[in-house]
Amino acid sequence: MDEFDIPIFRKVYELYKEFYLCVRNFPRHDKFSLGQKCELTIAEIIENILQASQQIRNDKLSHLDKASVKLNIFRIYIRLAEEIHALDNKKYLILQERIDEIGRMLGGWRRSIK
C-alpha cells in the first residue's frame, strides 16, 4: 500500500506543510520552542498513522490511539500559540479546522477497527 493513498496521511501531510509556513512567522523565541514542539508532534502523528497502515487489523488500534493523543497535544499547542500571539487568529482557525477534520478521520478509522 502506498502511504499517499491513505486520505488521513495526505491530510496530516498537508497540515504539516501548512504549519511549516506558519511557524516561519513565529517570533524567534517561539519558533525554536513552541514551533519546534509543534513540528515534532505533527511528525509523530505522521509516524503513527504510517505504522498503523502497515499493521494487521488488531495491531492498528494502539498506533491510532497514539496518533489521537498527539493530535490533541498539537491542538493544545496551536491554541497556546494563538493565545500568546505567535500565531494570528486567521491561521489558527484554518489549522483548527484541519485538526478537527483529521480527528474525525482518526475516530472513523478507530471505530471501523473495533
SSE order and pairing:
Elements: H1 7-23, H2 28-53, H3 57-83, H4 89-113
Helix pairs in contact: 1-2, 1-4, 2-3, 3-4
CATH-assigned homologous superfamily = 23S rRNA-intervening sequence
CATH architecture field: Up-down Bundle
Percent of residues in helices comes to over 70%
Number of strands: 0
The overall pLDDT average reads 94
Kindly name the structural category. Answer: mainly alpha
- Report the top-level CATH class: Mainly Alpha
Question: How many structurally independent domains?
Answer: 1
Total DSSP helices: 4
The CATH topology assignment is de novo design (two linked rop proteins)
Following the backbone from N to C, one meets helices and strands in this order, namely HHHH
Taking Cα atoms only, what radius of gyration do you get, to the nearest Å?
Answer: 14 Å
Strand content: under 5%
For the largest beta-sheet, the strand count, sense and barrel status come to: none
Cα(first) to Cα(last) distance is 22 Å
TL;DR of this structure?
The protein contains four helices and no strands. By secondary structure, it is mainly α.
